[in-house]
């Protein structure tokens, strides 16, 4: 089970509630507009706009139009955006000490994952980001199971031995190397381009 985090500028919730003027809350994300999380944010925007009589609304900028994970964390910290809807991979930029929370197979099951994210460890992660960058975790949601796409059947970790696979960060590289895979680190866009060309 993997999780999705919603990072926010530390001041946004207080500012939004206290403000009587209209405000667009800018949400930046690398997720594409077809992602279920973006659809949920669009529904939230409808409800927020309705219940605040138009005083608050979301401006959702999806698909990495504002940059990748690093750029979005920087924009959040500088106040250029108000919310970053992200996978926990953002931790490699905002709280590298806690990056292990986004590793594969770290949680026994979904309940265990939510207990960790909503418990002392999740709170400590959010506190670290608030102290270092002025941002914090506003919510954690369900993302689904981790999947491995391969040209050979992979049913157990042993099946990864010698398999060349592309991963997005050094933590993932270490995890899959421990299973015997051969994972060079590549950016997400490069992975999809390479996979579509069977490289």
Give a summary of the structure in a few sentences.
This protein has 8 helices and 5 strands; from the N terminus they run βαβαβαβαααβαα. By secondary structure, the protein is α/β, with parallel strands linked by helices. The protein has 2 domains: 143 residues, Bacterial extracellular solute-binding protein, family 7 (D-Maltodextrin-Binding Protein, domain 2, 3-Layer(aba) Sandwich), CATH 3.40.190; 40 residues, no CATH class.
How would you explain this protein's 3D organization?
By secondary structure, the protein is an alpha/beta fold. It folds into 2 domains: 2-144, Bacterial extracellular solute-binding protein, family 7 (D-Maltodextrin-Binding Protein, domain 2), CATH 3.40.190.170; 157-196, no CATH class. Helices cover 39% and strands 18% of the residues. It contains 8 helices and 5 strands; from the N terminus they run E-H-E-H-E-H-E-H-H-H-E-H-H. The chain has helices at residues 12-18, 36-51, 69-78, 91-94, 110-118, 120-133, 170-178, 188-196; strands at 2-9, 23-29, 56-61, 83-86, 135-144. Strands 3-2-4-1-5 form a 5-stranded mixed sheet, sandwiched between helices. The longest helix has 16 residues, at 36-51. The model is unreliable at 9-20 (pLDDT under 50).
């Amino acid at each position: 089970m993997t999780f999705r985090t919603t990072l926010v500028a530390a001041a946004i919730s207080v500012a939004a509630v206290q403000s009587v003027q209209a405000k667009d809350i800018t949400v930046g994300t690398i997720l594409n507009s077809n992602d279920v999380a973006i659809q949920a944010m669009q529904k939230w925007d409808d409800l927020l706009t309705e219940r605040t009589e138009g005083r608050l609304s979301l401006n959702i900028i999806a698909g990495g139009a504002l940059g990748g994970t690093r750029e979005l964390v920087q924009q959040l910290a500088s106040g250029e955006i108000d919310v970053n809807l992200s996978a926990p991979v953002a931790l490699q930029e905002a709280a590298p000490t806690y990056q292990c929370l986004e590793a594969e197979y770290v949680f026994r099951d979904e309940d265990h994952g939510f207990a960790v994210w909503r418990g002392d460890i999740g709170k400590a992660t959010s506190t670290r980001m608030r102290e270092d960058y002025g941002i914090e975790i506003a919510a954690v949601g369900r993302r689904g199971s981790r999947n491995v796409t391969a040209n050979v059947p992979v049913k157990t970790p042993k099946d990864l031995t010698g398999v060349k696979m592309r991963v997005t960060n050094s933590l993932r590289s270490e995890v899959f190397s421990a299973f015997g895979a051969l994972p060079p680190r590549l950016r997400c866009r490069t992975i999809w381009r390479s996979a579509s060309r069977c490289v």
